[in-house]
């Protein structure tokens, strides 16, 4: 029984840490801040930078990162390189960006989604459910 309790505590801690790390890696706090304030602007694509790399299987892939320029509500001009965009606009094309007044450099073209808004809670919750299920099975076996 003690082994099951120790496993449960360690597993719950690991799921909380993993949820937090994954959320940070996906830029969750930055994206949620940009979406929370509701500021949007029309941004113009001023350039597209191309970068080559390798995928997990060793094949070559090309990544494109647009440089977007927009004006905030207070009149400041901000230029960002969007690294999480699913759509790469052509040079000169306009797209909508979401930004926070405190950090307009953290703007994004991505629209708010349930998964990104709740990524930390979802990962932590799934890990907690698995931890409880495995610890229960372990307690019954021991």
**Main beta-sheet strand count, sense and barrel state:** 4 strands, antiparallel
Number of helices in the DSSP assignment: 4
Note the beta-strand portion.
25-35%
User: Averaging pLDDT over every residue, what do you get?
Assistant: 87
Strand order of the largest sheet: 3-2-1-4
Helix content: 40-55%
**Poorly predicted spans:** none
- Please provide the count of β strands: 4
3D architecture notes:
By secondary structure, the protein is α+β, with helices and mostly antiparallel strands. The chain contains 4 helices and 4 strands, in the order H-H-E-E-E-E-H-H. A 4-stranded antiparallel beta sheet has the order 3-2-1-4, with helices on one face. The protein is elongated and about 65 Å long. The termini are close together. The model has no long low-confidence stretch (mean pLDDT 87).
Q: Would you spell out the secondary-structure blueprint of this structure?
A:
Layout: H1 2-25, H2 28-36, E1 39-54, E2 60-71, E3 77-81, E4 94-99, H3 114-117, H4 119-141
Antiparallel strand pairs: 1-2, 1-4, 2-3
Helix pairs in contact: 1-4
Descriptive tags:
elongated; 4 helices; 42% helix; 4 strands; alpha+beta; single chain; 142 residues; 27% strand; four-stranded antiparallel sheet
In short:
By secondary structure, this protein is of the alpha+beta class. It has helices at residues 2-25, 28-36, 114-117, 119-141, and strands spanning 39-54, 60-71, 77-81, 94-99.
């Amino acid at each position: 029984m003690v082994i099951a309790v120790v496993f449960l505590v360690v597993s719950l801690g690991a799921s909380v840490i993993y949820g937090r790390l994954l959320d940070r890696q996906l830029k969750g706090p930055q994206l949620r801040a940009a979406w929370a304030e509701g500021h949007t602007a029309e941004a113009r694509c001023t350039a597209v930078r191309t970068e080559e790399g390798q995928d997990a299987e060793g094949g070559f892939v090309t990544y494109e990162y647009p440089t977007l320029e927009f004006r905030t509500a207070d009149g400041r001009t901000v230029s960002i390189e969007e690294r999480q965009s699913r759509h790469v606009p052509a040079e000169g094309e306009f797209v909508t960006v979401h930004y926070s007044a405190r950090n307009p450099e953290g703007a994004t073209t991505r629209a708010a989604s349930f998964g990104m808004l709740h990524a930390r809670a979802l990962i932590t919750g799934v890990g907690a459910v698995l931890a409880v299920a495995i610890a229960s099975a372990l307690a019954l076996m021991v």
